[in-house]
Amino acid sequence: MKKVEAIVRHFKLEDVKNALTEHGIHGMTVTEVRGFGRQKGHTEMYRGTEYTVDFVPKVKIEVVCSDESLQTVIDTVLQAAQTGQIGDGKIFVTDLQNSIRIRTGETGEEAL
Questions:
Q1: Judging by beta carbons within 10 Å of its beta carbon (0-12, 13-18, 19+), is residue 61 exposed, middle or buried?
Q2: Which domain does 74 fall in, by range?
Q3: What is the CATH number of the domain that holds 82?
Q4: Which of 2, 5, 35, 68 fits a 20 to 30 Å CA distance from 26?
Q5: How many whole angstroms separate alpha carbon 112 and alpha carbon 52?
Q6: pTM of the model as a whole
Q7: Quick one: which of 11, 1, 24 has its CA closest to 81?
């Protein structure tokens, strides 16, 4: 099993969710996050004063999937979230040792 964490732009969330659903990936967790990379924030004006916003708002999508469906998840997120501009986000993939469905006690891929 793998855990895929994708940091994407807010307005791409629906596109990514719909694309994953079309490919049979139904479970995901979405969190609003803030951070920066090469984009390095931006400046804004508030009541005539300019200030720097260091942390850019993004959305983190977490998907747990089988090893067999990993490439499908990655390709789907890449295609749905990409705009070609700096700040499109990142995808992180980690090994997942186990998962347990609390309601039934199922473990491993059965719990997905």
A1: buried
A2: 2-111
A3: 3.30.70.120
A4: 35
A5: 42
A6: 0.84
A7: 11
